Amino acid sequence: MSVVPYKEKNTGKKQQVAEMFNNISKKYDFLNHFLSLGIDILWRKKAIKYLKKDQPKYILDIATGTGDFAIEALALKPEKVVGVDISEGMLTVGKEKMKRRGLDNIIDLQLGDSEKLLFEDNTFDAIIVSFGVRNFEDLEKGLKDMNRVLKKGGKAVILEFSKPTKFPFKQLYNFYFKAILPKIGRLISKDSSAYTYLPESVDAFPDGDKFLRVLENAGFKDNKCKPLTFGISSIYIGQK
């Protein structure tokens, strides 16, 4: 049984994740940066650097949310970044952000299912995802569809939470992530489930070597894992 935000409901994970992000969309950016002490911004910058030598011109940002990773990808000087997400609420916030910053001509945010991408095969030079793949209803199916729309030789760069393993950071992290973070998230977002789902979804995610095997099964090769900040998160790089 997959981890879902609203255990009392009978809807599938995909629908529940969309509902959850719709509920917290207006507070999402603030909470993201506040709860991570701004480290998430540095993680995104570091992840994008793995595409620097490839200089991709057409980039797909999956589970784009409010578009922060898409904005970070502009450091690569692409011609176009397309962001896809299943949450209308997150996209509304993201589109307002792009208009405010004058980026809506280069960043195109679209409603869409990350596991059923509405793009032709071999369309994108690179695919990026930040903190999105663990929310997939069918992880391998979503990764296979990413591989399908990626050009041969193109790279996928995936930033995702992982689980620290070393003492004492593992214990401190678990206390913060499971006892403190949900309370702050609930208080600010007014959604009682969203920030309980976060640590539960991270616990259930096959991080590290396990995820590298899932990437391989989905058709990616030369897969690498780069742990960040004592293993709180990791950057995964795979090539088609």
UniProtKB/TrEMBL annotation:
HAMAP family: MenG_UbiE_methyltr
SUPFAM superfamilies for the chain: S-adenosyl-L-methionine-dependent methyltransferases
Designated name of the protein: Demethylmenaquinone methyltransferase
Matches recorded under NCBIfam families: MenG_MenH_UbiE, PRK00216.1-5
Pathway named in the protein's UniProt entry: Quinol/quinone metabolism; menaquinone biosynthesis; menaquinol from 1,4-dihydroxy-2-naphthoate: step 2/2
Catalytic activity: a 2-demethylmenaquinol + S-adenosyl-L-methionine = a menaquinol + S-adenosyl-L-homocysteine + H(+)
GO terms, biological process: menaquinone biosynthetic process; methylation
Gene that encodes it: ubiE
Species of the source: Fulvivirga lutea
Binding site for S-adenosyl-L-methionine: 66, 85, 113-114, 130
